[in-house]
Amino acid sequence: MTGPSPRTLGAAALLLLSLSVGLVMAMTMLVATLAEEEDANAISASCTVTTVGHDEQDEVAGVPNGWTPLVEAAAQEAGLPTSLVAAQLAQESGWNPEVLGPVLEDGTRAQGLAQFTPGTWATYGNGGDPFDPHAAIAALGRYMAALKNQVQPIAGNDPDELVRLTLAAYNAGPGAVQQHHGVPPYPETQQYIAKILDGAQSTFSTDCEAPTGSRTWDGDLGDGQWTTPLPGGVFTSGYGGRALTGVPSWANQHVGVDIATPGAGNGNGGVVVAPTSLRITGFNATDGCVIAKENGPEPDFGFAFCHLHSWDVTKGQKLKRGDIIGIEGNRGRFGMATHLHFEIYKPDAPDLVFPYQGHNLDPEPILKEKGAWPR
Protein backbone atom coordinates (compact mmCIF):
# COMPACT_ATOMS: atom_id res chain seq x y z
CA MET A 1 0.00 0.00 0.00
CA THR A 2 1.41 3.37 -1.01
CA GLY A 3 1.55 6.12 1.65
CA PRO A 4 0.47 9.71 1.15
CA SER A 5 2.67 11.91 -0.97
CA PRO A 6 4.76 14.69 0.61
CA ARG A 7 2.54 17.22 -1.16
CA THR A 8 -0.56 15.69 0.49
CA LEU A 9 1.11 15.72 3.92
CA GLY A 10 2.14 19.36 3.46
CA ALA A 11 -1.37 20.40 2.53
CA ALA A 12 -2.80 18.56 5.52
CA ALA A 13 -0.31 20.19 7.86
CA LEU A 14 -1.11 23.61 6.44
CA LEU A 15 -4.82 22.98 6.93
CA LEU A 16 -4.28 21.90 10.55
CA LEU A 17 -2.13 24.96 11.19
CA SER A 18 -4.80 27.26 9.75
CA LEU A 19 -7.47 25.62 11.88
CA SER A 20 -5.29 25.94 14.99
CA VAL A 21 -4.62 29.63 14.36
CA GLY A 22 -8.29 30.23 13.76
CA LEU A 23 -9.22 28.40 16.95
CA VAL A 24 -6.71 30.39 18.98
CA MET A 25 -8.00 33.68 17.55
CA ALA A 26 -11.59 32.66 18.29
CA MET A 27 -10.72 31.71 21.88
CA THR A 28 -8.84 34.97 22.34
CA MET A 29 -11.82 36.97 21.16
CA LEU A 30 -14.14 34.94 23.42
CA VAL A 31 -11.95 35.50 26.48
CA ALA A 32 -11.73 39.22 25.71
CA THR A 33 -15.49 39.45 25.34
CA LEU A 34 -16.07 37.58 28.60
CA ALA A 35 -13.55 39.80 30.37
CA GLU A 36 -15.32 42.92 29.11
CA GLU A 37 -18.67 41.53 30.28
CA GLU A 38 -17.21 40.61 33.68
CA ASP A 39 -15.73 44.09 34.03
CA ALA A 40 -19.07 45.66 33.16
CA ASN A 41 -20.84 43.41 35.65
CA ALA A 42 -18.32 44.26 38.34
CA ILE A 43 -18.88 47.95 37.73
CA SER A 44 -22.65 47.75 37.89
CA ALA A 45 -23.02 45.14 40.65
CA SER A 46 -22.39 47.59 43.48
CA CYS A 47 -25.93 49.00 43.45
CA THR A 48 -29.36 47.89 42.35
CA VAL A 49 -30.12 50.13 39.38
CA THR A 50 -33.61 50.02 37.87
CA THR A 51 -36.21 52.54 36.79
CA VAL A 52 -39.03 51.39 39.07
CA GLY A 53 -40.85 54.17 40.88
CA HIS A 54 -40.38 57.92 40.82
CA ASP A 55 -41.12 60.93 42.96
CA GLU A 56 -40.04 64.55 43.14
CA GLN A 57 -37.47 63.89 45.86
CA ASP A 58 -35.58 60.91 44.48
CA GLU A 59 -36.21 57.79 42.45
CA VAL A 60 -36.79 54.60 44.39
CA ALA A 61 -36.49 50.95 43.39
CA GLY A 62 -37.26 47.64 45.03
CA VAL A 63 -40.34 48.53 47.08
CA PRO A 64 -42.59 45.41 47.01
CA ASN A 65 -46.34 44.84 46.78
CA GLY A 66 -47.13 48.08 44.99
CA TRP A 67 -46.32 50.08 48.12
CA THR A 68 -44.14 52.65 46.33
CA PRO A 69 -46.82 55.41 46.42
CA LEU A 70 -47.29 54.81 50.16
CA VAL A 71 -43.55 55.11 50.81
CA GLU A 72 -43.37 58.22 48.64
CA ALA A 73 -46.21 59.83 50.59
CA ALA A 74 -44.59 58.97 53.93
CA ALA A 75 -41.26 60.40 52.77
CA GLN A 76 -43.01 63.57 51.65
CA GLU A 77 -44.71 63.85 55.05
CA ALA A 78 -41.39 63.40 56.86
CA GLY A 79 -39.35 65.53 54.49
CA LEU A 80 -36.89 62.67 53.98
CA PRO A 81 -35.54 60.87 50.89
CA THR A 82 -37.90 58.14 49.67
CA SER A 83 -35.05 55.66 49.40
CA LEU A 84 -34.24 56.24 53.07
CA VAL A 85 -37.80 55.55 54.24
CA ALA A 86 -37.82 52.39 52.12
CA ALA A 87 -34.56 51.27 53.73
CA GLN A 88 -36.06 51.86 57.18
CA LEU A 89 -39.07 49.68 56.47
CA ALA A 90 -36.89 46.95 55.03
CA GLN A 91 -34.62 47.06 58.09
CA GLU A 92 -37.47 47.12 60.60
CA SER A 93 -39.63 44.31 59.24
CA GLY A 94 -38.20 42.91 56.02
CA TRP A 95 -41.44 44.18 54.41
CA ASN A 96 -43.49 41.70 56.50
CA PRO A 97 -46.65 43.53 57.70
CA GLU A 98 -47.48 40.82 60.26
CA VAL A 99 -44.13 40.60 62.06
CA LEU A 100 -43.88 40.94 65.83
CA GLY A 101 -40.76 42.11 67.60
CA PRO A 102 -39.26 40.52 70.73
CA VAL A 103 -40.99 41.00 74.08
CA LEU A 104 -39.97 44.32 75.65
CA GLU A 105 -39.45 45.10 79.34
CA ASP A 106 -43.04 46.27 79.72
CA GLY A 107 -44.32 43.04 78.18
CA THR A 108 -45.36 44.61 74.86
CA ARG A 109 -43.96 43.91 71.41
CA ALA A 110 -43.28 46.08 68.38
CA GLN A 111 -45.83 45.42 65.66
CA GLY A 112 -46.18 45.44 61.92
CA LEU A 113 -44.34 46.81 58.94
CA ALA A 114 -42.88 49.83 60.76
CA GLN A 115 -42.44 48.06 64.14
CA PHE A 116 -44.34 50.54 66.28
CA THR A 117 -44.62 49.87 70.00
CA PRO A 118 -48.20 50.17 71.30
CA GLY A 119 -47.42 53.44 73.11
CA THR A 120 -45.91 55.13 70.06
CA TRP A 121 -48.68 53.78 67.83
CA ALA A 122 -51.28 55.35 70.11
CA THR A 123 -49.72 58.74 69.36
CA TYR A 124 -49.00 58.43 65.64
CA GLY A 125 -51.27 55.65 64.39
CA ASN A 126 -54.38 57.87 64.06
CA GLY A 127 -56.56 55.04 65.35
CA GLY A 128 -55.52 52.63 62.58
CA ASP A 129 -54.26 49.05 62.67
CA PRO A 130 -50.44 48.73 63.05
CA PHE A 131 -50.60 45.55 60.93
CA ASP A 132 -52.22 47.43 58.02
CA PRO A 133 -49.41 48.47 55.61
CA HIS A 134 -51.24 51.64 54.55
CA ALA A 135 -51.67 52.80 58.16
CA ALA A 136 -48.19 51.71 59.27
CA ILE A 137 -46.30 53.43 56.45
CA ALA A 138 -48.28 56.65 56.86
CA ALA A 139 -47.63 56.61 60.61
CA LEU A 140 -43.90 56.19 60.01
CA GLY A 141 -43.95 59.39 57.97
CA ARG A 142 -45.69 61.30 60.76
CA TYR A 143 -43.37 59.90 63.42
CA MET A 144 -40.17 60.69 61.47
CA ALA A 145 -41.47 64.23 60.84
CA ALA A 146 -41.98 64.72 64.59
CA LEU A 147 -38.51 63.36 65.41
CA LYS A 148 -36.93 65.57 62.76
CA ASN A 149 -38.56 68.64 64.27
CA GLN A 150 -37.21 67.72 67.72
CA VAL A 151 -33.59 67.39 66.58
CA GLN A 152 -33.65 70.30 64.11
CA PRO A 153 -32.09 72.80 66.58
CA ILE A 154 -29.09 70.49 67.07
CA ALA A 155 -28.55 69.89 63.35
CA GLY A 156 -28.78 73.57 62.48
CA ASN A 157 -28.65 74.18 58.73
CA ASP A 158 -26.85 70.92 57.90
CA PRO A 159 -29.35 68.69 56.00
CA ASP A 160 -27.12 65.62 56.16
CA GLU A 161 -26.69 65.95 59.91
CA LEU A 162 -30.44 66.44 60.30
CA VAL A 163 -31.13 63.11 58.60
CA ARG A 164 -28.53 61.31 60.72
CA LEU A 165 -29.90 62.82 63.93
CA THR A 166 -33.46 61.90 62.94
CA LEU A 167 -32.40 58.28 62.43
CA ALA A 168 -30.54 58.38 65.74
CA ALA A 169 -33.64 59.71 67.48
CA TYR A 170 -35.72 56.91 65.95
CA ASN A 171 -33.28 54.27 67.21
CA ALA A 172 -32.15 55.67 70.56
CA GLY A 173 -34.84 58.25 71.32
CA PRO A 174 -34.75 62.03 70.90
CA GLY A 175 -33.67 62.42 74.52
CA ALA A 176 -30.40 60.59 73.82
CA VAL A 177 -29.69 62.85 70.85
CA GLN A 178 -30.39 65.95 72.95
CA GLN A 179 -28.28 64.63 75.82
CA HIS A 180 -25.23 64.06 73.61
CA HIS A 181 -25.97 67.02 71.34
CA GLY A 182 -25.49 64.74 68.35
CA VAL A 183 -25.50 61.07 67.43
CA PRO A 184 -25.18 59.14 70.72
CA PRO A 185 -22.00 57.05 71.12
CA TYR A 186 -23.99 53.82 71.10
CA PRO A 187 -22.66 51.16 68.70
CA GLU A 188 -26.20 49.94 67.99
CA THR A 189 -27.37 53.41 67.00
CA GLN A 190 -24.31 54.14 64.90
CA GLN A 191 -24.67 50.80 63.13
CA TYR A 192 -28.38 51.44 62.57
CA ILE A 193 -27.67 54.77 60.87
CA ALA A 194 -24.99 53.19 58.69
CA LYS A 195 -27.31 50.33 57.66
CA ILE A 196 -30.16 52.64 56.70
CA LEU A 197 -27.97 55.01 54.71
CA ASP A 198 -26.24 52.11 52.98
CA GLY A 199 -29.53 50.40 52.14
CA ALA A 200 -30.99 53.65 50.83
CA GLN A 201 -28.11 54.05 48.39
CA SER A 202 -27.24 50.46 47.52
CA THR A 203 -30.69 48.85 47.39
CA PHE A 204 -33.43 51.42 46.95
CA SER A 205 -31.84 54.16 44.86
CA THR A 206 -32.35 53.73 41.13
CA ASP A 207 -29.07 55.45 40.25
CA CYS A 208 -26.89 54.61 43.29
CA GLU A 209 -27.02 58.25 44.37
CA ALA A 210 -26.22 58.80 48.03
CA PRO A 211 -29.26 60.06 49.95
CA THR A 212 -29.22 63.12 52.15
CA GLY A 213 -27.51 61.96 55.33
CA SER A 214 -24.61 60.14 53.67
CA ARG A 215 -23.38 62.64 51.10
CA THR A 216 -19.77 63.60 51.65
CA TRP A 217 -19.49 65.82 48.60
CA ASP A 218 -22.34 68.14 47.62
CA GLY A 219 -20.93 68.96 44.20
CA ASP A 220 -21.04 67.14 40.88
CA LEU A 221 -19.21 63.80 40.89
CA GLY A 222 -18.49 64.10 37.18
CA ASP A 223 -19.50 61.89 34.29
CA GLY A 224 -18.77 58.20 33.85
CA GLN A 225 -18.24 55.25 36.12
CA TRP A 226 -15.12 54.26 38.00
CA THR A 227 -13.44 50.92 38.58
CA THR A 228 -12.94 49.30 41.97
CA PRO A 229 -9.38 50.22 43.07
CA LEU A 230 -8.70 46.62 44.22
CA PRO A 231 -10.45 44.26 41.78
CA GLY A 232 -11.58 41.11 43.58
CA GLY A 233 -11.21 42.75 46.99
CA VAL A 234 -13.83 42.91 49.72
CA PHE A 235 -14.73 45.77 52.06
CA THR A 236 -13.22 45.28 55.54
CA SER A 237 -13.31 48.61 57.40
CA GLY A 238 -15.18 51.87 56.96
CA TYR A 239 -14.70 55.57 57.47
CA GLY A 240 -15.01 57.03 60.97
CA GLY A 241 -14.31 56.07 64.56
CA ARG A 242 -13.15 52.61 65.58
CA ALA A 243 -11.69 50.98 68.68
CA LEU A 244 -8.37 49.34 67.86
CA THR A 245 -5.95 48.59 70.69
CA GLY A 246 -2.23 49.27 70.63
CA VAL A 247 -2.41 52.27 68.28
CA PRO A 248 -2.40 56.04 68.93
CA SER A 249 -5.77 57.71 69.43
CA TRP A 250 -5.55 59.48 66.06
CA ALA A 251 -5.31 56.12 64.30
CA ASN A 252 -8.76 55.20 65.61
CA GLN A 253 -10.27 58.01 63.54
CA HIS A 254 -10.25 56.12 60.26
CA VAL A 255 -10.21 58.58 57.36
CA GLY A 256 -10.54 56.10 54.51
CA VAL A 257 -11.92 52.67 53.71
CA ASP A 258 -10.08 49.35 53.74
CA ILE A 259 -10.42 46.76 50.97
CA ALA A 260 -8.63 43.41 51.11
CA THR A 261 -8.04 40.44 48.84
CA PRO A 262 -9.59 37.36 50.51
CA GLY A 263 -6.92 34.94 51.73
CA ALA A 264 -3.99 37.32 51.25
CA GLY A 265 -3.07 37.13 54.95
CA ASN A 266 0.24 38.93 55.43
CA GLY A 267 1.62 38.19 51.99
CA ASN A 268 1.46 40.19 48.79
CA GLY A 269 -2.08 40.88 47.72
CA GLY A 270 -3.89 41.82 44.55
CA VAL A 271 -3.27 44.42 41.90
CA VAL A 272 -4.26 48.00 42.78
CA VAL A 273 -5.53 50.01 39.82
CA ALA A 274 -6.60 53.56 39.01
CA PRO A 275 -10.37 53.89 39.56
CA THR A 276 -10.49 56.70 37.01
CA SER A 277 -8.06 58.76 34.95
CA LEU A 278 -5.54 60.33 37.29
CA ARG A 279 -2.06 61.78 37.61
CA ILE A 280 0.49 60.78 40.25
CA THR A 281 1.35 63.73 42.51
CA GLY A 282 3.60 62.18 45.17
CA PHE A 283 4.30 59.41 47.68
CA ASN A 284 4.30 58.63 51.40
CA ALA A 285 6.87 55.85 51.52
CA THR A 286 6.48 55.22 55.28
CA ASP A 287 2.92 54.03 54.85
CA GLY A 288 3.30 52.74 51.31
CA CYS A 289 1.05 55.42 49.83
CA VAL A 290 0.74 56.61 46.26
CA ILE A 291 -0.92 60.05 46.10
CA ALA A 292 -2.85 61.15 43.01
CA LYS A 293 -5.36 63.65 41.61
CA GLU A 294 -8.04 63.18 38.99
CA ASN A 295 -6.74 63.90 35.52
CA GLY A 296 -9.65 65.22 33.54
CA PRO A 297 -12.77 67.33 33.99
CA GLU A 298 -13.97 68.59 37.34
CA PRO A 299 -14.30 67.90 40.24
CA ASP A 300 -10.62 66.85 40.49
CA PHE A 301 -10.73 64.68 43.62
CA GLY A 302 -7.51 63.60 45.30
CA PHE A 303 -6.69 59.97 46.13
CA ALA A 304 -4.35 57.97 48.34
CA PHE A 305 -3.62 54.27 47.79
CA CYS A 306 -1.86 53.13 50.97
CA HIS A 307 -0.07 50.16 52.58
CA LEU A 308 1.09 49.00 49.15
CA HIS A 309 3.79 46.32 48.98
CA SER A 310 5.23 47.97 45.89
CA TRP A 311 4.38 50.41 43.11
CA ASP A 312 5.63 51.08 39.62
CA VAL A 313 4.51 54.63 38.93
CA THR A 314 6.37 57.92 38.96
CA LYS A 315 5.46 61.47 39.93
CA GLY A 316 3.70 63.25 37.10
CA GLN A 317 2.72 60.00 35.36
CA LYS A 318 -0.79 59.97 33.91
CA LEU A 319 -2.89 56.83 34.23
CA LYS A 320 -6.12 55.75 32.61
CA ARG A 321 -8.91 53.96 34.44
CA GLY A 322 -7.79 50.41 35.16
CA ASP A 323 -4.05 51.07 34.79
CA ILE A 324 -1.92 49.34 37.43
CA ILE A 325 -0.64 51.44 40.32
CA GLY A 326 0.98 48.75 42.47
CA ILE A 327 0.50 45.66 44.60
CA GLU A 328 -1.60 45.48 47.78
CA GLY A 329 0.52 44.99 50.90
CA ASN A 330 0.94 45.77 54.60
CA ARG A 331 3.57 48.49 54.64
CA GLY A 332 3.10 50.96 57.51
CA ARG A 333 3.97 52.07 61.02
CA PHE A 334 1.81 49.41 62.72
CA GLY A 335 1.50 45.67 62.27
CA MET A 336 -1.37 44.83 59.96
CA ALA A 337 -2.72 42.26 57.57
CA THR A 338 -2.45 42.87 53.85
CA HIS A 339 -5.04 45.34 52.56
CA LEU A 340 -5.55 48.52 50.56
CA HIS A 341 -6.31 51.64 52.57
CA PHE A 342 -8.05 54.01 50.15
CA GLU A 343 -8.71 57.70 50.75
CA ILE A 344 -10.49 60.42 48.76
CA TYR A 345 -9.73 64.12 49.24
CA LYS A 346 -11.78 67.22 48.49
CA PRO A 347 -11.11 68.82 45.11
CA ASP A 348 -9.54 71.88 46.73
CA ALA A 349 -6.87 69.76 48.46
CA PRO A 350 -3.27 70.40 47.37
CA ASP A 351 -1.62 68.02 44.93
CA LEU A 352 0.48 66.45 47.68
CA VAL A 353 -1.92 65.86 50.56
CA PHE A 354 -1.90 63.66 53.64
CA PRO A 355 -4.63 62.44 56.01
CA TYR A 356 -5.84 64.43 59.01
CA GLN A 357 -5.29 67.76 57.22
CA GLY A 358 -9.02 68.45 56.90
CA HIS A 359 -9.38 67.35 53.28
CA ASN A 360 -10.70 63.78 53.68
CA LEU A 361 -14.08 62.61 52.36
CA ASP A 362 -15.80 59.32 53.12
CA PRO A 363 -15.03 57.25 49.98
CA GLU A 364 -17.91 54.76 50.42
CA PRO A 365 -20.89 56.77 49.09
CA ILE A 366 -18.76 58.19 46.28
CA LEU A 367 -17.49 54.77 45.18
CA LYS A 368 -21.02 53.39 45.31
CA GLU A 369 -22.46 56.20 43.25
CA LYS A 370 -19.66 55.78 40.70
CA GLY A 371 -20.30 52.01 40.49
CA ALA A 372 -16.91 51.10 41.98
CA TRP A 373 -17.80 49.68 45.41
CA PRO A 374 -16.27 46.22 45.95
CA ARG A 375 -18.65 43.31 45.76
Keywords summarizing the entry:
3-stranded antiparallel β-sheet, 8-stranded antiparallel β-sheet, 2 domains, Transglycosylase SLT domain-containing protein, Lysozyme, single chain, elongated, Glucose Permease (Domain IIA), alpha+beta, 9 helices, 375 residues
Please name the CATH architecture of the largest domain.
Distorted Sandwich
Q: What is the number of beta strands?
A: 15
SSE topology string: HHHEEHHHHHEEEEEEEEEEEEEH
Measured on Cα atoms, how large is the radius of gyration? 26 Å
Q: Helicity, in percent?
A: 25-40%
Mean pLDDT: 81
CATH classification class of the largest domain: Mainly Beta
Overall geometry comes to: elongated
Number of domains: 2
Enumerate the spans where pLDDT stays under 50 for 5 or more consecutive residues.
6-56, 214-218
Under CATH, the topology of the largest domain is which?
Glucose Permease (Domain IIA)
What percentage of amino acids are in beta strands?
15-25%
CATH superfamily of the largest domain: Glucose Permease (Domain IIA)
Category from helices, strands and their pairing: alpha+beta
In whole angstroms, the N-to-C terminal distance is 66 Å
Largest sheet: 8 strands, antiparallel
Number of helices: 9
Domain Transglycosylase SLT: 70-181
Keywords: Plasmid
Domain M23ase beta-sheet core: 253-347
Pfam family, one: Peptidase_M23
